[in-house]
Design brief:
By secondary structure, this protein is of the alpha/beta class. It has a single domain, classed as Vaccinia Virus protein VP39 (Rossmann fold, 3-Layer(aba) Sandwich). The chain contains nine helices and seven strands. A seven-stranded mixed β-sheet has the order 3-2-1-4-5-7-6, with helices on both faces. β6 and β7 form a beta hairpin. The longest helix is centred in the first third of the chain and has 16 residues. The N and C termini lie far apart (42 Å).
Amino acid sequence: MSTSDRKHYVAEYEQYVAWLNTKFDHDEAMAYAVGGGDFAQIGEWALNLLKNFGLAEGQTLVDVGCGSGRLAAAASRSFGDRISYLGLDVVEELLDHARTVSDPSYTFALNTELTIPVADETADFVVFFSVVTHLLHEESYRYLRDAARALKPGGKLVVTFLESQQHWSIFERVVDIYDLPHVIEPLVMFIERPMLDTWVEKLGLELEQVLTFDPPMQSIAVLRTPTRE
């Protein structure tokens, strides 16, 4: 597989953001780049989920696919510099916007590899909001495997995903727009529950819970690294 093929997700998102910029003003384009809707409200919803999963002051949060900073902005309002935050994305323009809405202590980095650029066992949370939905399964597994390496014992990996039973209308839409040349969107991938269960087992993680929501919200898996005795 060539380098360009391996990094389809970079080309697709760069093209998508460029297309959004032709359709909307800057702030709207930045909101649509992370799914649209109320930028602040959805960010608060995501942050409150993480708080319910145990995110607290003094912890380290790695936000994979941070986009234009929706979660980072909410974390800034709630925690400020009382957490350590690293946001990763494949599009520099999204990172530039994220910096403008986030606490100055937060770090952002362009990351086009399927790895987490932190040392072993240093993160309390690694979160993938709407990331594996745009990757091939092999790519997702590689990314999650490295996230497990980066987590502290007892650390949590939070992953949103699409599954057919819950999100059939989204699957039908992807089928309908498949060959429409005027539609520019990244790849959309589904992960079914048996595959998720297998990944959890092979990665040596523990499945804490899976939350499901009515469309258009994705399902959310909360995984945990084992604690040491």
